[in-house]
Amino acid sequence: MKLILVICLFFIRVHGDFTAKNCYESTNDDDMCLYMSSFNKVYAHKDEYLERKKSVTQKMHHLQKSSPLTKYALNAISDRTFHPNTKLKSKSPVVGTHVKRLNSYSLPLTLDLRDKLPSIKDQGNCGSCYIFAGVAVLEYYAGVSISEQKIMDCSSSENGPSYGCDGGWPENVFEYAKKAPVVLEKTQPYQEQNNPCNQTCSGSVVQVKRYGSLDMEKDPDSELRIPYILNQYGPVVVAIDVGTTELLMSYQEGVFPGIACGKEVDHAVTIVGYTEDYWIVRNSWSEEWGDNGYFYLERGVNACGVAETISYISSVKNSLQI
């Protein structure tokens, strides 16, 4: 099976002492100063402010694309820089077995699993979207918040190869969770960086027994299978294209249309529900982005390459030890 490697979007956070007050006092850029004031932005120095201004100015052009169906606006991540990592475009070394016999039954017209998941998280300055997307599925089964850092640090060629902050495949998370401990988030909080693996931990919160993978190359109807997987097994990890237009970074509300992006997938997210018109998608850009961290993606047109590569968990051993 051909799987497209998910190369994550990651962003740069900044801290320092160039404040909105400094901006008003030393520049004539009222728009940028207002942005800093509105989102409590503080930069290390004026040079960094100028770099962030470039990002915000770019996002301002997105606002012109707002329509009655989709609204774009500046947000807390508008000053962050998008860094696509393209060096790892190859097949996933671990592939799940697709459960071919999905139950044939009348699907409910809508489904929303958001209340079955913990709060939205933020991948920050790290290309770990594939970790967050996969962990969201584990959290659905475990009913607790799980440590992304543990999986990122301890993935290896034996239990789910990944490249930490430099990208990877969502299947890495599921393969790891078949063979190694999955621990609570509070046991090993997220640090936005690669660390040596900490082997001293308790037993696993949840263990994967089986997971599935499919893609459009071998199954042109893969998008049609997503609602069946959601109803039968739970959340589904998909890869989408953000980098072609970067318009999704300015998403605020409404349905994000397929014409607003390409299909060169570079970011992993988790589908947690649907209506007749759109997918409900969980992102890892904090609750300050989108609809409290979620967005709605046009359904039925392979929008942003959503059906190009799909993975999900089909069986677990739940709550072993905490």
Labels describing this entry:
globular; alpha+beta; 7 helices; 9-stranded mixed beta sheet; 9 strands; 322 residues
Textual characterization of the structure:
With 322 residues, this protein is α+β, with helices and mostly antiparallel strands. It has a domain at 20-68. The chain has helices at residues 20-26, 30-38, 46-62, 129-142, 148-154, 170-179, 222-232; strands at residues 70-72, 111-112, 206-215, 236-240, 251-256, 267-274, 278-282, 294-298, 309-318. Strands 1, 2, 3, 4, 5, 6, 7, 8 and 9 form a nine-stranded mixed beta sheet that branches. The two termini are 36 Å apart.
- Cα radius of gyration in angstroms: 20 Å
* Biggest beta sheet summary: 9 strands, mixed
Measured distance between first and last alpha carbons: 36 Å
Which structural category fits the helices and strands? alpha+beta
Low-pLDDT runs: 85-90
Q: Which helices and strands appear, and what pairs or packs with what?
A:
Layout: H1 20-26, H2 30-38, H3 46-62, E1 70-72, E2 111-112, H4 129-142, H5 148-154, H6 170-179, E3 206-215, H7 222-232, E4 236-240, E5 251-256, E6 267-274, E7 278-282, E8 294-298, E9 309-318
Parallel strand pairs: 5-8
Antiparallel strand pairs: 1-5, 2-6, 3-9, 4-6, 4-9, 6-7, 7-8
